[in-house]
């Protein structure tokens, strides 16, 4: 079955360009478009897309709030949100990731990257490399807690090895790099990452990285 995609951007020409790229792929189907966040919510309810390509800066309701409402608590629909941004260090991207986005992509990314990102996100994975998430969080550390806050009780549910894996995910290491660092197999790392996400109630590696920073487990600006 084709991956159902909803395009959300306030610029019709950009939506047309994205549609042309995506409809050339046999496994992707553009099921609708929206020009702002409110329209996006209506379209998500009506069309049940698998992936929402979400612009951030839009009238009436921005992409961050729309993302929060699409992926927030109590939402059991299939939609995953892939945020589109003009700038690779847009301050709103951090908020979108916190709101539940599965990753972000630059609007001028090559077509092949856009297509691959949609496939990855639709498969339930985070689209962006943890290193990008780390760079964003370091850049906007002012938005994050100081680290003096009490460590969340949920961290206590993790084993010592799972905490190690979470730290390495947040510091930008891939599964292969974590496996090499801990002298275990990639399959073992994937299992640990899965346990971390399940125990902490997180959707993907992006939210795991955000959690690691917000809990104080990893400090913004610390040596990587």
TrEMBL record:
Record keywords, A-Z = DNA-binding, Phosphoprotein, Transcription, Transcription regulation
Q: Which Pfam families match?
A: GerE, Response_reg
At which residues is 4-aspartylphosphate found? Answer: 55
Q: Where is the Response regulatory domain?
A: 4-122
SMART domains reported in the protein's UniProt record = HTH_LUXR, REC
Q: Which InterPro entries match?
A: CheY-like_superfamily (IPR011006), NreC/VraR/RcsB-like_REC (IPR058245), Sig_transdc_resp-reg_C-effctor (IPR016032), Sig_transdc_resp-reg_receiver (IPR001789), Tscrpt_reg_LuxR_C (IPR000792), WalR-like (IPR039420)
Task: Name the coiled-coil region(s).
Answer: none
List each copy of the HTH luxR-type domain by range.
151-216
Please indicate which superkingdom the organism of origin belongs to. Answer: Bacteria
Q: Give the matching SUPFAM superfamilies.
A: C-terminal effector domain of the bipartite response regulators (SSF46894), CheY-like (SSF52172)
The record's section on PANTHER family has:
TRANSCRIPTIONAL REGULATORY PROTEIN NARL-RELATED (PTHR43214:SF24), TWO-COMPONENT RESPONSE REGULATOR (PTHR43214)
Give the protein's recorded name: Response regulator
